[in-house]
Amino acid sequence: xxxxxxxVATAQPxxxxxxxxxxxxxxxxxxxxxxxxxxxxxxxxELDRADVHAAGDLPPGVVTLNAQVDxxxxxxxxxxxxxxxxxxxxxxxAGKVSILTPVGAGLIGMSEGAAILWPDREGQxxxxxxxxxxxxxx
Length: 138
What we know:
With 138 residues, this protein is of the alpha/beta class. Helix content is 23%, strand content 27%. The strands form 2 sheets. It has a 5-stranded mixed beta sheet with strand order 5-4-3-7-6. It has a two-stranded parallel ribbon with strand order 1-2.
């Protein structure tokens, strides 16, 4: 399947997360649970269903922290390229999106070619399809 072929989004595609990132993201979600309860809950639900791997065992093409992600909003057709980062490193102008945003929480652990139905900031469902993942520099 080519990266540009249409996909039908599933509500819960398979997710893969690095063990150390799992701990960092879960800690962040717990810290914002009082101020952002819906986002924190969604992020924890995603982490809970993810397959957790050591960094060296992560399948290729998976969205991790600091990875560059190209994705398409299937509804609007808009294509974005972002780097998924921790909140302190977020900079929308530079294309750095925090894991503690709706789109960041929806992208983590996804694989190239996968799609997910995920709410945007206004709570409207959007189908996000991962086109390409460039791994974080080590």
